[in-house]
Amino acid sequence: MEALRRTPFYDLYAAYADSRCIDFGGWELPVQFTGIVKEHEAVRERAGLFDVSHMGEFMVTGEGAEAFLQRMTTNDVSRLEDGAAQYTLMLYPSGGVVDDLLVYRLGEERYMLVVNASNIDKDFQWLLEHLTAEFSGVTLKNISDQTLLLALQGPLAETILAQVTEAPLTELKPFHFIEHAEVCGVTVLLSRTGYTGEDGFELYAPADTAAALWNGLLAAGAPHGLTLAGLGARDTLRFEAKLPLYGQELSAEITPLEAGVQFFVKLDAGDFIGRDALLKQKQAGLPRRLVGLEMIDRGIPRSHYPVFADGVKIGEVTTGTQSPTLKRNLGLALLDAAYTEIGTEVYVEIRGKQLKAAVIKAPFYKRSQGVKPQ
Predict the structure, then answer these.
(1) Which of 6, 18, 209, 255 keeps 20 to 30 A from 91, CA to CA?
(2) What is the pLDDT of residue 14?
């Protein structure tokens, strides 16, 4: 059996007696440090620090880099200015998703891609396969093993970070970054991005600087209640904000239109891979849609639980849990489009029983409005 991979922070987990690691896509990563609900609440109320160094980073450089990424991704790369980033997707010709990712424009013909950990090898190979003679001036480099990534998320993230950097944080807008910022004496790429539904920052740095960043940020955050957070809280936080997870809300069988991320698909921005399939799906009408569910009967919807209406299966839950913020049993589900109107009653099969649920608005939580009323 192949050994699990570890991030540069792995040895630092040992200082936390309650930390618990799991196999996550071939990586040995902490699912929690003190408890998922405690960590979730810390991020919503104060701040949390996540080791997400398992994510992949690719450099795309050279003449034609912009045109290459325009062909490979669904968003409009040409709109990016230096120091800006965008969320986007790579698609198969069928319209299914290869991966969702971030594109950072470092400079003219200099980009960094950030991809999901479980897709690093697949994504890199996909890009290489499409690096045709038309893009002969483009160079791809996988720098994942040399790069660490920390996410500092929550309403006090800026307050904490300001103690260990002189970077102009108040001027840094969402989805913008500073390529060379000093944090805890370490040069990092400092980005105002995240995956929690809260304000926050992501820090990319050389792998050998792990201890300096980890210890420096935790020391600065201690008076403000900064909490280490693991994969469990990362999942519940992104779920409440309806941020998709590859393999659940997005996959080779689910298009971005069905998943509700059409805002990041610019059908008028050029002939990207998968565009024709999406145009056909849009013209024909979506056969299914991702919606929010709330249980009416007592039960918690979980991934892959089937959903029924009128005696037939109409889809399945993609993610579900008891929301730590709202204290309600909620789910995201990909359903036949005929059953996606708000208020529609459906039935989720849980342990062999069909329990009543209703389609509700999602996201369930928005930072700008606090807890979103239904």
Answers:
(1) 6
(2) 81
